[in-house]
Amino acid sequence: MTACNSLRRLLNILSLDEKIADRIADWIRTDSNPRLADSETGAKNAALDSIDEILLINGISEKDYETLLPYVTVYGSRDNLIVNINGAEKPVLMCLSDAITDDLAQNLINYRNATPFEDPTDISKVTGFDKIGTSLGGKLMTKGSVYRVTSSAESGGVKRIIETVLNVSPTSATVSYWKEY
After folding, report:
1. Residues 167 and 129 in one domain
2. How many structural domains is the chain composed of?
3. Pair (58, 14) in one structural domain
4. Residue 176 — φ and ψ, nearest 5°?
5. Is residue 127 a part of any domain in this protein?
6. C-alpha dist (Å) from residue 3 to 42, 74, 126, 128, 144
7. Residue 137's closest CA among 155, 147, 118, 124?
8. Which of 57, 95, 146, 173 is packed most tightly, with the most Cβ within 10 A?
């Protein structure tokens, strides 16, 4: 399972154009071989520094970006998809495998709400994941270390929003991204 295949599944789940995956791949890959006719135009050919950079990619609209925003990150490995099964939203869980249906993802969510996972292999305890769970080995974690925090306040008709990404370790927290608007 590659991150690009999982992104394609996520795009399908969210009813977005699957070609967005090719556009993002061409933007970050260091080669100049386009997957689509115009997808290498202006490509960065390096990893995304922030999720907002998706808006710079040719052929990705603001509506596409807004739809994707709650489910994607630029933090972590760009080659390997690793998902926190204790916090992932349903579409993210479903993008892990074609075998994970809406009902199976909901079973997992119901299970973790009652009993959070302590180890990724515990996924096999969820009804329907006894066989699928083993195929997800190495793609799951139970505790994240990167968190996106959004705060908004409004006073006198003026609204301010602060978004930040924190990388948390047992001894410290580092700000990886900060945006105010």
Report:
1. no
2. 3
3. yes
4. -95, -25
5. yes
6. 23, 12, 24, 23, 18
7. 124
8. 95
Same domain, 131 and 161: no
Crossing angle of helices 3-13 and 19-28, rounded to 10°: 140
Beta bridge partners, 180, equal 162
- Identify which of 29, 30, 72, 23 has the alpha carbon closest to the alpha carbon of residue 52: 72
Q: Which of the listed residues 71, 102, 119 is the one where a domain comes to its end?
A: 71
Show the domain range for 38: 3-71
- One digit per residue, pLDDT tens: the chain, 181 residues? 478 889 999 999 999 999 999 999 999 888 888 888 888 888 898 888 888 899 999 999 999 999 999 999 888 765 677 899 999 999 999 999 999 999 999 999 999 999 999 999 999 999 989 888 778 878 899 988 888 889 999 999 999 999 888 888 889 999 988 989 9
For residue 76, tell me if it sits in a domain: no
